């Protein structure tokens, strides 16, 4: 028998991205640091009536047993999707353990070893993590602070012959850039995807949170065959429940279901029933207007504080989601600035380089992502004054 010194891990583990900021982010969630790091929902906006609903669910005889997917929840998701302008049936829905599992399962079903996957230069870190174990190449297209995904760059890439297995995109409440794609860009993207036969993986965890009127319908409202939609209850109800969903063509749902059963048998039945019972009990219009109003105030506090404290910088103007993307005018490296910001300034953010596929370049180094959802307007104002002091100290 041959012995080795340590466990032999799969090759992909050596390619795993390390994050310079991760340790500091842990520090940032402690003590008196005002953290704009993680996209956590506002604790004040969690549903206050969830305890009562949970008690009624726990009283059901089979509450703690293995179970099949909650059919009632699927029909509730169909109604939710209709609110976003999407027509689908229960057979096209798979309940998942959060949007994150939806992304992973879609990759499992679509991505082949050695194939290509298309995404934006700046993209959700959880998508990049989910991609790590696939032996696939990430192709990128630019994203603009006001326009979002560069749709024409997608067209040029495909016209040159690239055939990625899928395009990953967050069209509403982009993470990390905080932008929304326009109606025109959405129509054009779907038309391009159809023409070249490329699947779109549409990640929409913030789709119900719009702060300036109704958001554009998701890409799935424009196409039923090429778009796989990922939804989540994390921001609508609570992330600890870990319940989300996928909408996909029926034949794809079958394979997604096999991949899901292999991963975790079933989304926690308790969580599914809780979400379903909550949706039965809640006045959804009132809930959405509470969430939208609550986050709008925080978004406005962050944008106002940026004007007051970093007037020379450029930033995105989010109409949805939790984030603002900031580009400082100074040639300050935001990854290098982070230790001083946390230890001396008692304020934290995520350096822009963390989201850049393939490593930071040029102006990524002076960019940062600020989350406005977690802190109150007062804390946001105070945190931004602290950030200004850190930037000023480095400038002099
Ligand atoms: C763009 C994006 N996708 C997916 C997720 C994961 O959401 P969930 O809690 O539903 O897994 C997040 C979480 O913040 C996110 O920002």
Please, could you describe this protein's structure?
By secondary structure, the protein is of the alpha/beta class. The chain is 41% helix and 14% strand. The chain has helices at 12-15, 22-28, 50-58, 71-83, 98-110, 125-131, 151-159, 183-196, 250-264, 269-281, 284-309, 334-345, 377-395; strands at 34-35, 93-96, 116-120, 137-141, 143-144, 148-149, 166-169, 199-203, 227-232, 244-247, 314-315, 323-327, 347-348, 350-351, 367-371. The strands form 5 sheets. Strands 2-10-9-8-7 form a 5-stranded mixed sheet, with helices on both faces. A 4-stranded antiparallel sheet has the order 11-12-15-14. The chain is globular, with a radius of gyration of 21 Å. The mean pLDDT is 93.
């Amino acid at each position: 028998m041959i012995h080795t010194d340590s466990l032999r891990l799969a090759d992909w583990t050596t390619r795993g991205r390390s994050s310079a900021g991760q340790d500091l982010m842990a520090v940032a969630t402690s003590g008196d640091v005002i953290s704009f790091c993680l996209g956590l929902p506002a604790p004040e906006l969690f549903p206050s009536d969830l305890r009562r609903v949970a008690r009624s669910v726990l009283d059901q005889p089979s509450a703690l047993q293995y179970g099949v997917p909650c059919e009632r929840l699927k029909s509730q998701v169909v109604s939710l999707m209709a609110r976003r302008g999407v027509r689908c049936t229960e057979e096209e829905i798979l309940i998942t353990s959060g949007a994150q599992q939806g992304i992973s399962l879609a990759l499992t079903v679509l991505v082949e070893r050695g194939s290509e996957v298309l995404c934006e230069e700046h993209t959700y870190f959880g998508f990049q993590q989910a991609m790590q174990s696939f032996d696939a190449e990430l192709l990128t297209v630019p994203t603009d602070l006001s326009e979002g995904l560069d749709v024409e760059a997608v067209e040029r890439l495909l016209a040159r012959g690239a055939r990625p297995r899928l395009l990953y995109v967050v069209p509403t409440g982009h993470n990390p850039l905080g932008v929304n794609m326009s109606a025109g860009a959405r129509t054009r993207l779907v038309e391009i995807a159809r023409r070249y036969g490329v699947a779109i993986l549409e990640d929409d965890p913030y789709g119900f949170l719009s702060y300036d009127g109704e958001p554009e319908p998701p890409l799935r409202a424009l196409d039923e065959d090429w778009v796989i939609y990922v939804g989540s209850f994390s921001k609508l109800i609570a992330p600890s429940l870990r319940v989300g969903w996928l909408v996909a063509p029926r034949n794809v749902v079958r394979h997604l279901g096999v991949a899901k059963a292999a991963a975790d048998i079933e989304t926690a039945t308790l969580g599914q029933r809780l979400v379903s019972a909550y949706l039965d009990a809640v006045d959804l219009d009132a809930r959405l207007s509470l969430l939208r109003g609550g986050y709008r105030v925080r978004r406005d506090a962050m944008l106002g504080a940026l004007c007051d404290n970093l007037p020379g910088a450029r930033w995105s103007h989010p109409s949805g989601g939790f984030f603002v993307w900031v580009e400082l005018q100074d040639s300050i490296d935001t990854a290098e600035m982070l230790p001083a910001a946390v230890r001396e300034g008692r304020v934290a953010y995520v350096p822009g380089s963390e989201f850049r596929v393939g490593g930071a370049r040029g102006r990524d180094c002076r960019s940062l992502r600020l989350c406005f959802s977690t802190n109150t307007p007062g804390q946001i104002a105070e945190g931004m004054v602290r950030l200004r002091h850190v930037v000023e100290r480095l400038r002099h």
